[in-house]
Amino acid sequence: MNRKKSSALLQQFLFVGPSTIFFILIMIIPFLLGLYYSFTNWNGVSSKIDWVGFDNFVTIFTNDDKFRDAFWFTTRFTVLGVILTNLLGFLLAYFLTKPLKTRNVLRTIFFMPNVIGGLLLGFIWQFIFVKGFAAIGNATNLGFFNLPWLGTKGTAFWAIVIVFVWQTAGYLMVIYISSLNNVPKDILEAAEIDGASRGQVLRSIIIPLVMPAVTVCLFLAISWSFKMFDLNLSLTKGGPFGSTESVAMNIYNEAYTNNRLGLGTAKAVIFFIVVAIITSLQVRFTKSKEVEA
Amino acid sequence: METMKKYRLNTLATEIIMIIVALLFLVPFYFLFVNSVKTFGELLTDSAGLPTAFEWSNYSRAWNITNFPLAFWNSLVVTVVSNLLLAMLSAMTAYQMVRRNTRFNQLMFALFVAAMVIPFQSIMIPLVKVTATLGINNSLYGLIICYLGFGVPLSVFLFHGFVKSIPVEIEEAATVDGASGYGVFFRVVFPLMKPMFVTVIILNTLWIWNDYLLPSLILQSAELRTIPIATFAFFGQYTKQWDLALPALVLGIMPVIIFFLAMQKYIIEGITQGAVKG
Q1: pTM
Q2: Which residue among A113, A127, B72, B125 is least enclosed by CB atoms within 10 Å?
Q3: Span B84-106, mean pLDDT?
Q4: Whose CA is closest to B270, among B199, B184, B211?
Q5: A150: closest CA of chain B, how far (Å)
Q6: Which of A54, A58, A20, A63 is nearest to A35 (CA)?
Q7: Residue A51, helix vs strand vs coil
Q8: Residue segments in chain A with a per-residue pLDDT below the cut of 50
Q9: Residue A260 and residue A268: Cα distance in Å, rounded?
């Protein structure tokens, strides 16, 4: 009996131990340390770290325009980016579930931008916005392409939105396609026989039935856009004049450009709380809209 | 007959519109490839047209300056080793957590799930300090350890849902036949988990291969650079030198594009599975 118990313990240790140790070392300890550092004036250089109470949080909320701007930028970007990429992803999926001959090739093309990392995509699009759009503008005389895309605050914002949607829509499309394929054919046929228009079928049958996929896709898109860093860094570096600096980039700069690591971790704690609240609210909201066929 | 014809016309119209949209999607790749073989002068005066002559020396220069083979090797080592360990450890953990539902395992699983909402940027600053204290910063194996820590929650979560769907009777039959606890897992359960291995490995590969921020914080030496880091360093030095930058970018995206085209079926399946479970 005793031998059996100790061998069960050994198996528990071998199977759960390693992943638990890595997890605690890499996630839990830094997370707890971060909570502690957010109440200090840690600067990364001096070994003397003083407890400063809520000073960092007071500074962030009352005296940090850049963080406020970064939050506002990230919020606007998230709202627009999430809506547009989901709309495009759903539309692509909706049409690609029709019996098109080129369906598979099209699916491959729409998905392809997604396998490339945000950092390289940002550099590629830098060239497109600076040289490519100018060339199209010259050839077509369309004002849209002759804008200084990365040069002004308004256009730089849209430039990031465009690249984000181009990159992520294909991923969401894949999820929507699998969900659309699961909509029972007999319900659609019954609706058609009853004389429902295509718009009615979409609104009253298809959309309610793909709500679980909407939950997943909104969750993914919110989490990508709210945490954006790579694309931001390589496409605009937060410019012009810091107008496209995301929260993640603001945290990074506070810690590694300004060397105020205590303040940076305080921002990181706020960032974590906001992300946790948004994602849990969103999942709860969309789940309440799910129906079963 | 009437509706049949209308249906075909509609489908044809949809098909044409979708092909046009797809071509628009490809425009950035057109600009990238076409201009990567132009001379600097031609690239500035005519970025839309096809190249008049192929300037392949752009590629050899970019290849040498970025030290592409080394960056590729570093990316490959980190991605492959992290993936194998991550999938293996997570599968074992998830299996144990489902089949031995002790209070400790319940608590750990709850922690894994909760940790999935923690954004990387929320813990990166103290993480750098932790890795320095442990002496695992500025090394590929240190980076791999970080990926294990960050990857475990989602991977365990995905395997956890999958193991629950495996009927326990199969394992009981194996035990009756004399298999040990390890034998049951490695000979019976492990092969059944294959579809979920594909999903987990695909999701983790796309994440780790393309990741920039974590390796940029952990690795300092030039000889340890992965592809994203090498590309970033290169851009810092050769801003606006598009005749070098574009071929460097083509080199940088080629491995993952080839991987995608070869493994497309599995990638699409993996993402669908991952999303359904997540």
Answers
A1: 0.91
A2: B72
A3: 93
A4: B199
A5: 14
A6: A54
A7: strand
A8: none
A9: 12
A236: which 2 tokens?
A: 């605009």
Residue A54 has a pLDDT of 86
User: In this model, does residue B269 exceed pLDDT 50?
Assistant: yes
Q: Which run of H or of E encompasses A46? A: none
Place of tokens 């659609």: A188
Residue B137 sits at φ, ψ, to 5 deg, of: -80, 165
Dihedral sign of CA atoms A32, B118, B157, B90 in order: negative
- CA dist B49 and B35 (Å) reads 9
- What is the identity of the amino acid at B32? L
What pLDDT does residue A74 have? 94
With beta carbons less than 8 A apart as the criterion, state whether A264 and B133 touch.
no
pLDDT tens for A94-136 read 999 888 888 889 999 999 999 998 899 999 999 999 888 888 8
- Residues whose CB is less than 8 angstroms from the CB of residue A55 and which lie 6 or more positions away in sequence, other chains included: A41
User: Do the Cβ atoms of A15 and B93 come closer than 8 Å?
Assistant: yes
Residues 83-122 of A with CB under 8 A from B: 92, 95-96, 98-102, 105-120
Protein fold of B67-237 = MetI-like fold (1.10.3720)
Which of these, B166, B174, B173, lies nearest to B196 by C-alpha position? Answer: B166
pLDDT exceeds 80 at position B94: yes
Chain B hits for A23, CB-CB cut-off 8 Å, are: 111-112, 115, 149, 152-153
**B95–A27: do the CB atoms touch at under 8 Å?**
no
Task: Compute chain A's Rg from CA coordinates.
Answer: 24
**Phi, psi (degrees; rounded to nearest 5) at A44:** 85, -20
- B276, pLDDT greater than 70: no
Q: What homologous superfamily does CATH list for A64-287?
A: MetI-like (1.10.3720.10)
Distance from the Cα of B55 to chain A's closest Cα (Å) equals: 18
The predicted pLDDT at position B278 comes to: 47
Confidence of residue B54 (pLDDT cuts 50, 70, 90): confident
Give dist(CA B192, CA A130) in Å, integer: 51
Place of tokens 């799930």: B113
What's the ipTM? 0.90
Mean per-residue pLDDT over chain B, rounded = 88
Query: B257 and B250 in contact (C-beta within 8 Å)?
Result: no
